[in-house]
């Protein structure tokens, strides 16, 4: 496999669930180290990495009703959860020799820097992995939408969406053994057929700003390296031409 990156700058979206692997609990040591190792492999090729992490392993705003909460404070908890995950992943990455900066859309003075576009761009150019936490800073959004926003803002050439499956299928491969995987899709098909690449707002924003989305399995060997160096594996979602 070629080890020459096809991109100078990428935005990686990780779900909070990825930190927990297949284990009960919130964060699993082995899963966190596995993820950090995969990120380091790409980092060591000199690729500039922006990273958005979710909080679903800890709390999602959609749980509001079950808990009897109002949605907005529930989303605040969700955004705090992304910050916890970002701090953990930042520390794990640091132990492996990656330079990291954690920046939050919400103000957590004394714990993480507040998001600032100039500072983020400068840090990326200086070789820091910039971890964007706190989502968009607004309730009723998701970290998928955050990823499409930050990818647009930092002018990433691709949004890498790490999942537990190896791409996008025409139906749920866990339920249907005859499900077929797409190697390539257009934004229009993904949206029209409601293929759950990411949430629709995120897909629409990537289409608007011409940022391809590459969906791949983070736990499959070399999948992220292949996506970054060969634009292969998983499913690549691009514009219509
Ligand atoms: N969230 C939010 N605004 C945002 C991003 C996230 O309110 O801009 C909250 C929302 O409650 C969401 C939670 O943070 O459910 C965790 O994010 P997400 O569900 O996207 O995490 P993931 O599924 O990727 O782990």
Reading off the top of the CATH hierarchy, the class is best stated as: Alpha Beta
CATH topology: Carbamate kinase
Sheet with most strands: strand arrangement:
4-3-5-2-1-6-10-11-9
Oligomer: single chain
What is the CATH architecture assignment?
Answer: 3-Layer(aba) Sandwich
Total helical elements: 8
Mean pLDDT: 95
Low-confidence stretches: none
Rg of Cα set:
17 Å
SS elements, strand count: 11
**N-end to C-end Cα span:** 27 Å
Overview of this structure, please?
- The chain has a 9-stranded mixed sheet with strand order 4-3-5-2-1-6-10-11-9, with helices on both faces. A two-stranded antiparallel sheet has the order 7-8.
- With 241 residues, the protein is of the alpha/beta class.
- Helix 1 packs across helix 3 and helix 5 (143-153) packs parallel to helix 7 (200-209).
- It has a single domain (9-238), classed as Acetylglutamate kinase-like (Carbamate kinase, 3-Layer(aba) Sandwich), CATH 3.40.1160.10.
- The protein contains 8 helices and 11 strands.
- Strand 1, helix 1 (29-43) and strand 2 (48-53) form a beta-alpha-beta unit.
- The model has no long low-confidence stretch (mean pLDDT 95).
- The chain binds uridine-5'-diphosphate.
- It catalyses: UMP + ATP = UDP + ADP.
- Its EC number is 2.7.4.22.
- Catalyzes the reversible phosphorylation of UMP to UDP.
- Belongs to the UMP kinase family.
């Amino acid at each position: 496999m070629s080890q020459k990156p096809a991109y100078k700058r990428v935005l990686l979206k990780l779900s909070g669930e990825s930190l927990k692997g297949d284990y009960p609990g919130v964060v699993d040591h082995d899963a966190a180290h596995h993820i950090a190792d995969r990120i380091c492999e790409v980092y060591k090729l000199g690729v500039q990495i922006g990273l958005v992490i979710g909080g679903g392993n800890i709390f999602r705003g959609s749980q509001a009703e079950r808990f009897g909460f109002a949605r907005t404070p529930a989303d605040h908890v969700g955004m705090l959860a992304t910050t916890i995950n970002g701090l953990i992943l930042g520390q794990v990455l640091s132990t492996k020799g990656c330079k990291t900066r954690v920046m939050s859309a919400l103000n957590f003075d004394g714990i993480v820097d507040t998001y600032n576009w100039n500072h983020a761009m400068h840090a990326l150019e200086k070789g820091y992995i910039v971890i964007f936490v706190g989502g968009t800073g607004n309730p009723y959004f998701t970290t998928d939408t955050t990823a499409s926003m930050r990818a647009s803002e930092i002018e990433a050439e691709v949004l890498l969406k790490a999942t537990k499956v190896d791409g996008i299928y025409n139906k749920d491969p866990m339920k249907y053994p005859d499900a077929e995987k797409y190697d390539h899709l257009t934004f229009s098909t993904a949206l029209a057929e409601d293929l759950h690449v990411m949430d629709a707002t995120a897909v629409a924003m990537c289409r608007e700003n011409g940022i391809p989305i590459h969906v791949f399995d983070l736990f499959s060997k070399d999948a992220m390296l292949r996506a970054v160096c060969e634009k292969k594996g998983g499913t690549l979602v691009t514009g219509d031409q």
